[in-house]
Design brief:
The structure is a homodimer of 672-residue chains. With 672 residues, chain A is α/β, with parallel strands linked by helices. The first copy, chain A, is 29% helix and 22% strand. Chain A has 2 domains: 337 residues, Divalent-metal-dependent TIM barrel enzymes (TIM Barrel); 320 residues, 2,3-Dihydroxybiphenyl 1,2-Dioxygenase, domain 1. Chains A, B: It is an enzyme of class 4 (lyase).
């Protein structure tokens, strides 16, 4: 299967976009008209540049507001189209996307729309070209895929087919199931985009908030399966309008896009062997605004059956008629799609079993601070690296590596973390197939071989086997790791992500390590709104909480820049808190007064929490989180200790603003 | 009238917020609960801090999900309220905002809601406190101000009144007119916020996109007039949730907020002497989503008439009844509100008559580039400043000042511009009253006295009289200003605004100089989305186009940083283009091919445009813009020449991406 990307997905001028698409391994592009218009290259030069880069131009788009208009306007529109056909010929592309009209001049008349599109298809065919008609979700009269398909059927023109865009289809209420029944060969083009569920105007949703497949909430593997069932064999093409991607490094966005398509292809599951005419089990339609009062799913499959084909009328005829639809339900093909030739499969994601270690880069200023903090948390300095200025600190199954071999002094940072996998080579092979190649760790002879992949925030992610003896690189200090303060294991890592790469990071962990996305949380913090989305394995042995500011922070920035933290799990936070020799971050008394009012907790329990600086959260199912924070060390990092009760599966996000304000207060009071 | 601001309006911890509010001259605050919860200060300490700063705590907010719930929950809610009353007593505030419930546990029963609120008011009264009940626009059962008023009337409790929030009122379909008929004394609190018209979920609209009055689309002078007509004499309090304000310098945001309130007060017009029960002439209600199927305006005024007061039942009674409403239309008060004691009036904004000069700061690198450019545009170097390294360049009524007295070398910048006013002292007095005090220009004895105010982007804005002889500070060079290339005057300035201060800038020019906001335009540029909003005087003698990136730009930034430009007007752009000795910015051939298709222009006309590098735009009324751009000079600035035809009143925004791509192409090809 060929992979394509619309130029509108990435930032820059056309040159930037083509270079990025080619470098990421795409086979072709959709050329967005504006990118052509602002380019100093002629269409013929663009064609040559694409050929040099190994890219085909698979689609020219969009051609707007064409059909079902008064004669005078139709004439002007056809003349406009002829000019575009000329450009397309120079570009060497044969398919143009015509999206359903949003013009006030358009009338609600399927016969007229079909007649006009037939006229246009005649003109296109004369140039050896074809028309891919797409129902915009906010089209004036045609806004659903089944409606566009009825019009294409009425026209019955060989040079007129459908363009299906997953956003336009899945953002509306008409279920996608009957797509599998579209006449083979009549889907001319396929555009893929994901999106989060948002309650907003569908046009704004589409223009600003699309995401690459796997980054949003749409079931794209199922959608793609339906389209392939209809015999579609054109490119899988991404068309994503996203405010952030529009202004971030195009080279990185294109890699993110390719990773997304690779994962999607891998996810292609066999279709269920049930009639495809049943409504989709879960439709996001109710989330799209404005929602129609009643949205009855189409119950009749729309197929271009042999019987209806015989009834086709001349495209230019004014007396176009609807083809009678077959009443027979269409069933899925017998051959699972995953076995379809051309579908590339990824190495499966091996099961992860936990966090092996977390490495901090420290310098002469932050190193001592971190050591004091670890000691206060009950860690023991158990090992010293054979050849490098690197220390191992342990408590229970928690292992912290302090690496002083930094070349540039600066705030402390989580430079690397290691997870354990049941099959590290397979994990690394999967990463490689997802455009995240592993690089070998710098090492000396005799040292354990560890390979790392680089996460979007620059952190190295090592994948080790539980049996790997990487600790043998460390000479024992003679200090044993004791029970300390009862810290058992790493509960999660908290990593602030670069603004431009938050969704990229989510997809990276999701695809490369096979972690699931947990629900996105947004909250108001003292210096602006924050977004948090964690990834975790199903058994919750590995959790990474990714956070980002909702707006890139600017000149007024009293907050810690890009904070990072490690949260350790304990079975009894109150006992752990009593065992700490490090004072936890002070929590305001006002917090506890509010907590009591909010959750109806007993005064005794609140007093105990308050005594130890412990924060509290409860989820709707009654799961509870007790957690405490430390101050910030080394200018950027801090620690958390968590006790999860009754299956609490969040991260205490409502308490994050309390932590931020308290950390700032401490900075102000300890530096003055 | 007292002026207050909700702590949620500005960024930071409580200390930052209180300091900012006091410095900007506010009399009081609304304390948002989260700001209290994260504060290390006890309520008593907060009270003292506010007193020290001269601030009163006018409202504690919000108290959520209280009313119309099952008995068990009511009990818990009352207990929760008791805890908050305790906190309020320590804070020394007596009014709490109770917003209509969004809880699934709440039932749609006005009698029950009134009974519960009466119970709560009883409890509040026991503490000497009162309840301000507010209809959230997305309340589960109570979402309009008139509904909240009916419930407050049913309760008939002296310690229960309304909180009116302009956003919640004006974002919904119920007209605000009948607010003037609310029983005097029953509006306990007034919250003011503006907003742009947006088609989105009302909750998201409210939580992310509110603006200060005068920055959005709501008619707040009229709204405030209605509230004052009902006898409201509490504080005018701003409550603005805005993603950008939440993360920008609180000191500046608070000044912006104060400027907004000052302007709003000044705008208080006499109410029309017509019955207030007629529907509002223009209601933004249809823009709020989700919109109900039919939104009939309330036709019966809701007043607490003496007759209905006699029918009040005991608040605790289970048999609450609705008070019969008076059928008499309420008319506006006889005394114009503007004459109301306590309303502060601004010096009126004198009429502006044009741009006097534009000053560029240049250094040894950018100075020569700018001189070459001005010469190429037909400018003559006519004057040299008597005491400073400052040159005057002229053509027609266009005057450019090149100031080489820069202390820090860097890209060229528009450091100042001057407009002519019919009464400069009055203009400056108005600016002073709007927290934008003028600072005297640094000058030597005998030089013209010019005073400037500082715009939010740091540009100095001089206000001069058309008769001012500021040019006498310049010694003639002997070169006369000739017809040049036919540039007549400054059409507009184009100033990129700092991301955090775009709305502040709009309000600054609108309030201080009395310029009107023109419609906001958004467009996709090569490096991300852009927003543009111009301000102009009614006769279009002064225009400033303010632009900003929709997202703050980050690490990938090949664009010119914060570009600025001056656009000059000509009566005949083709003749001007022929007279230029500076080659204009090259425009791609693809642009002209698309132009022909888009507008149906004749081939001859397009060929002429193309020959001279002229871009073209047309508005829906047939107004036309012909304009051309220069390359970027001095790393940051460029020029534009415009010819407006048939009343074209925009700025050719669709062509901005063409310019940006062409300017980048030129940078790449001339630096390589």
């Amino acid at each position: 299967m060929r992979r394509s990307i619309a130029t509108v997905c990435v930032s820059g001028t056309l040159d930037d976009k083509l270079t990025a698409a080619a470098a990421a391994g795409f086979d072709g592009i959709e050329l967005f008209e504006n990118d052509l218009v602002v380019s100093p290259w002629s269409p013929a030069e663009i064609r040559r540049r694409c050929a040099d880069l190994g890219l085909t131009i698979d689609l020219y788009q969009p051609f707007r507001d064409f059909e079902a208009v008064p004669d005078e306007l139709l004439k002007a529109n056809l003349s406009r189209a002829e000019r575009k056909f000329g450009v397309m010929a120079e570009l060497g592309t044969d398919t143009v996307l015509v999206c359903s009209s949003v013009s006030p001049a358009a009338v609600d008349d399927d016969d007229l729309a079909a007649a006009h599109l037939s006229l246009l298809a005649d003109r296109a065919a004369a140039h050896g070209m074809r028309i891919a008609y797409e129902a915009l979700a906010w089209g004036r009269h045609v806004s659903t895929w089944d409606h566009s398909w009825r019009i294409v059927q009425r026209a019955g023109h060989p040079a007129l087919g459908l363009c299906l865009d997953s956003f336009h289809v899945l953002s509306r209420e008409v279920p996608p199931d009957d797509i599998a029944g579209i006449t083979p060969g009549k889907i001319f083009f396929l555009q893929l985009a994901d999106a989060p569920h948002l309650r907003m105007d569908v046009l704004q949703w589409s223009r600003h908030h699309r995401l690459f497949p796997g980054q949003g909430a749409f079931d794209l593997p199922r959608f793609l399966g339906l389209v392939l069932s209809a015999g579609y064999d054109g490119p899988l093409s991404l068309e994503v309008f996203n405010d952030i991607f529009r202004q971030s490094d195009p080279a990185r966005t294109a890699v993110d896009a390719m990773r997304s398509l690779t994962l999607l292809e891998d996810r292609l599951a066999p279709l269920p062997a049930v009639p495809l005419t049943s409504p989709a089990p879960t439709s996001p339609a109710h989330l799209a605004l404005p929602a129609p009062a009643s949205a009855a799913p189409a119950s009749t499959p729309l197929r271009d059956s042999p019987a209806s084909a015989a009834l086709r009328v001349s495209p230019a005829s004014a007396a176009l008629r609807v083809s009678p639809a077959s009443a027979a339900p269409r069933v899925s093909p017998a051959v699972p799609l995953a076995d379809r030739p051309g579908v590339r499969r990824l190495p499966p994601a091996p099961r992860l079993t936990g966090h092996a270690f977390t490495e901090f880069a420290v310098d002469g200023h932050s190193g001592p601070e971190l050591r004091t903090a670890l000691r206060g948390l009950g860690f023991a300095h158990t090992g010293q690296h054979r050849t490098k200025p690197v220390e191992l600190w342990e408590q229970g199954a928690c292992r912290i590596v302090l690496n002083s071999a930094v070349t540039h002094p600066g705030p402390a940072a989580i430079s690397a973390f290691a997870v354990t996998s049941e099959n590290p080579p397979l994990s690394l092979a999967r990463a490689e197939a997802l455009s995240a190649p592993a690089h070998p760790n710098v090492r000396e002879p005799g040292e354990a071989e560890l390979a790392a992949i680089t996460a979007p925030d620059g952190t190295s992610v090592f994948v080790t086997h539980p049996g790997d003896d990487w600790r043998s690189d460390f000479l024992p200090t003679g200090t044993a790791s004791g029970p300390g303060a009862g810290l058992l294991t790493v509960d999660h890592l908290g990593l602030t992500q670069p603004f431009d790469h938050f969704d990229e990071a989510g997809l990276f962990y999701h695809s490369v390590l096979g972690l699931d996305h947990l629900p996105t949380e947004e909250y108001a913090a003292p210096y602006g709104l924050m977004r948090s989305r964690a990834v975790a394995d199903p058994r919750r042995t590995v959790r990474v909480a990714l956070t980002v500011a909702l707006l890139r922070r600017g000149e007024w920035a009293p907050a810690v820049s890009d904070p990072q933290h490690v949260a350790f799990a304990t079975a009894d936070l109150i006992a752990t808190a009593q065992a700490l020799s490090l004072p936890p971050l002070p929590v305001p008394a006002n917090y506890y007064a509010d907590l009591a009012a909010r959750f109806g907790l007993t005064d005794d329990f609140v007093a105990t929490l308050r005594e130890h600086g412990i924060l509290y959260d409860r989820d709707p199912s009654g799961g509870e989180l007790l957690h405490l924070y430390t101050p910030v060390f080394g200018g950027r990092v801090f620690f958390e200790i968590t006790e999860r009760r009754a299956g609490y599966d969040r991260f205490g996000e409502p308490n994050a603003p309390v932590r931020m304000a308290a950390q700032r207060h401490r900075r102000l009071t300890t530096t003055s």
